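Sequence in, structure out. Go.
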Amino acid sequence: MVKKKKRQGQSEYFFDYSLLFIVLFLLGFGLVMLYSTSSYEAAQKYGSSTYYLMKQLRSTILGLVGMMVIANIPYHFWERFYGFGYLISVVLLALIIPFGHESGGAKRWFRIAGMSIQPSEIAKLCMILFLAVVICKMGKSIRSMKGFLALIALPLPIVLMVWKITSNLSSAIIIMGIAVLMVFVASPDYKKFILMGLAGVVGVALIVFIIVNMADSGSLNYRGDRVLAWLDPEAYVSDKGYQTLQALYAIGSGGIWGKGLGQSMQKLGFIPEAQNDMIFSIICEELGLFGAIAIILMFVMLIWRLMVIANNAPDLFGALLVVGVMGHMAIQVILNIAVVTNTIPNTGISLPFISYGGTAVLFQLAEIGLVLNVAKRIQLKEV
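Output:
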């Protein structure tokens, strides 16, 4: 759906209400599923079944306000802050070491005025802005091997800090994935990426092979144990494979049409923190294969709208901003569903707009605000 707006002269612009509707639908559906998934645990832990829902609702409302503000600020305004954003990401990640709040065995958050702030979510948005500006400044030099390697190397400090300081490998992979996709879109030479992809596949296969052969040595860390649990979750049913198996039970028991909204059994303490990374399994249990496919199609429509906006953006900077947001959403959705279905080893990846997480929804909506502003600058041709 496109609404035309008349400006001075004969130029016409549009606001992408289709994208806005998709995002609002995902947010509304996410709040419903969050309450359904978390009400039991919230009542047990905090004495209120709406504890998680109200916290997420506050973040969602704040995020929607921020989204509309950002959607009305010309996106070139943010261009001047690209270096500052990179620096802020580095500083915030470094401050996690002395001031970070630990939860679930990981120190990834700041606690400020009763709110949790996750620097890795801030780093994702800052990386999109930083690389969009740098790629535009580099111009044709991106075609040289030196320019290509420089662009690939620039995200590495933040990627390594997210991985090592916050022990959040999944967010590190997402940030690097965003960077590679943005460089891929801007670079005309695809051979480098084919070689990188092949090297990555060989590297992952080699790591899995080494871990399997070290299984009996007792020297593996928890990530190695997760790989083994991925290969044979039933052998680790009381430890690393427990959450994965419970999620698979939920998916299997949902069948085609599901048990009905609110009727999940696995959310009753069987899946730890079901409202976070494993919320897709509860969707499958309550709404069945039909509901799961419907949500996947909504995400496909979201990615499609982002692709349309990127293809029609008025300049390279705007296109790269949208490509970065598209990469973030696509990578996170694919990895989350892959984890829940045990396609890849279990690692903490939330489902955009649906999983519980205040910082995540705030900055995801900020990214959508940027995209909406780029879309508003697309000039329509008069017929």
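Check: The first helix runs from residue 17 to 46. Residues 76-350 form one domain.
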